[in-house]
Amino acid sequence: MSDKGKIFFGLAIFVILVTFPFWGRLSAGDALPDRAELEYPADEEACVEDTPFMRASHMDLLNQWRDELVRDGNLEEYVSELDGRTYPRSLTKTCLSCHEDRDAFCTRCHDYADVQPTCWECHTTPGGGV
Amino acid sequence: MNILVALAAVAGLFVVGMLGGVLGLGWIFGVIIPSLALLLFVGGMVAKVMGWSKSAVPFRIPTSCGQQKSLNWIPHSRLENPHTPLQAAGRMVLEVLFFRSLLRNTRAELVDGRRLVYRTDHLLWLAGMLMHWSFLVIVIRHFRLMMNPVPGFVSFIEATDGFLEIGLPVVFITTLTFLLGVSILLYRRLTDPQVRYISLIGDYFPLFLLLGIGLSGVWMRHLDKVDIAGIKELMVGLFHFSPVVPDGISPVFYGHLFLVSMLLAYFPFSKLTHMAGVFLSPTRNMANNNRAVRHVNPWDYPVKVHTYEEYEDELREKMVGAGIPVDKPLEKE
Ligand code: HEM
Q1: Predicted local confidence at residue A129, as pLDDT
Q2: Can you state the percent helix, strand and coil of chain A, rounding each to 5?
Q3: Which of A59, A74, A129, B73 has CA 20 to 30 A from B89's CA?
Q4: What atom of ligand 1 comes closest to residue B179's alpha carbon?
Q5: Cα–Cα distance between A69 and A90 in angstroms, integer?
Q6: B132: phi then psi, degrees, rounded to nearest 5
Q7: Do residue A14 and residue B240 have CB atoms under 8 angstroms apart?
Q8: Which positions in chain B touch A110 (Cβ < 8 Å)?
Q9: Which residues touch A35 (CB under 8 Å, ≥6 apart)?
Q10: In testing the pocket of ligand 1, which one of B14, B140, B141, B142 has its CB within 8 Å of the most ligand atoms?
Q11: Dihedral sign of CA atoms B145, B151, B156, B157 in order
């Protein structure tokens, strides 16, 4: 007596499960880009800080601004370490003044990376994005 | 000694991965090594199980802890002593999902220096459950970094896991329970003299490896942020067979990924194969129905025999010549 049949059935399930990310590709089709296409501000050269820092740590910056303004009552403007420009510590007023279309920038990248910030339940978007 | 070797090995591997990142060897450490590791993992596990599948199914071993099926008025313990394949499957499901046999773990202790006492010890079960389940959830959550678009159940698990909404980015519950589970398992190995006595490098290494993977993950998420979008490009490219290596990915990520690659490559050749082995444990997956179902010995193949008649047919002339009596006389021409 041998249990080869049952064992191969189990193995097949194992292989299908661990190669799951490969199968997702088949069901999704070829239409989807492999990276997020972002729309950058047309008339600006640089972000608040340098781009690699912003890409990785923008949520830290926002968190820090929020703490400084709301908790410590620091109303002065933030001075960029990149070029010395000053910015109000504000989510809507600062970030979205340059990145005007939130859906084509923040949201597009967040959807790509599957992040759902809750900020917009309270904070507004100019032009009323969703 | 075993402990230090295992710890040094994991630390060394992490440094190697980080160095790969620092030196800009993204193609080697981000594409080639992870692909080979995944191949080795899947291929190694399949080869291992195919090897096991060649062995004959053994005679059922009724190591059970409940009343066997008997007369109708004696209550039968279906899960502890299954009689049908379905009941055995029930026992397997509980074993695989809830590690039921670990609930029987005991620990021997000398009380007052001379009285030997055995008591149940559920710490191993608890830490095992914490570690394994958190590991599963973490791996599923990680699909968000490998698949585009992200399947709905991944986002759902992510949202549920982070529902406490503490911190920015939020702290996931399973991140903490995973680290807690691994730490308890390590603590047990280090502090229980009996367990420590039988622990080898191969026991410490996986624990340190998991701890290293978990801590480097926490480092990336909560301490020194990394470029998630770039990392996702790398992973999605890998899974779509069109690899790209974006610039500016932190060396910590390459350290994390290298440790994961080592885990995958090490898996089929270590005690971690218990992942597949548990399904083939004869004492768990076979029903105790020896008295009801005939077990055919699998190596009882038809034996090639040489009967006395054939032997005599072959040698009759020589036997008659030597004066040995034969059953059938020589035929006269
Ligand atoms: C054995 C599999 C793995 C385990 C156990 C593991 C464990 C962890 C843990 C515990 C964290 C902390 C945050 C969290 O819980 O999400 C983390 C974060 C992370 N892991 Fe892994 N990891 C594994 C595989 C991978 C792989 C294959 C990649 C490659 C894409 C990866 C990339 C990352 C990244 C980029 C982060 C930071 C996530 C963030 O900032 O949100 N991990 N990992």
Answers
A1: 47
A2: 50, 5, 45
A3: B73
A4: 10
A5: 9
A6: -65, -45
A7: no
A8: none
A9: A112, B229, B232, B233, B236
A10: B142
A11: negative
Distance CA B18, CA B254 (A): 6
Phi, psi angles (nearest 5°) of residue B289: -130, 40
pLDDT tens digit sequence for A19-48? 888 887 676 655 566 677 888 988 888 899
Give the pLDDT confidence of A61-105 residue by residue, as tens digits: 999 999 999 999 888 889 999 888 999 999 988 999 899 888 889
Q: Which atom of ligand 1 is nearest to the CA of B34?
A: 27
Residue B229 is nearest to which of A8, A109, A116, comparing CB atoms?
A109
Give the domain range for residue B47.
Answer: 2-52+79-293
Does the structure show a pLDDT above 70 at A128?
A: no
Whether the CB of A32 is below 8 Å from some CB of chain B: the reply is yes
- Say if B283 falls within a structural domain: yes
Contact B252, B219 (CB under 8 A): yes
How many angstroms separate the Cα of B286 from the Cα of each of A38, B59, B80, B128, B281?
A: 57, 9, 11, 24, 8
**B59 in a domain, yes or no?**
no
* Assigned domain for B321 exists: no
Q: How many CB atoms lie within 10 A of CB B231?
A: 22
Amino acid B332: pLDDT: 66
Q: Are B127 and B105 in contact (CB under 8 A)?
A: no
Q: Looking at the domain assignment, is residue B134 inside a domain?
A: yes
Mean pLDDT in runs of 10 for chain B (333 residues)?
A: 93 95 92 96 96 85 82 91 92 94 89 88 95 97 90 92 88 97 96 91 96 97 93 91 89 97 97 94 88 79 88 92 89 67
Rg of chain B taking only CA atoms, in angstroms: 29
Nearest-Cα residue of chain B relative to residue A21: B147
DSSP character string of B78-102: TTTS--SHHHHHHHHHHHHHH-GGG
At A31 the pLDDT is: 53
How confident is the model at residue A130, as a pLDDT?
44
| Nearest residue (CA) to ligand 1, atom 29 | B257
Contact of B49 with chain A, judged by CB distance below 8 Å, is answered with yes
Number of domains chain B contains: 1
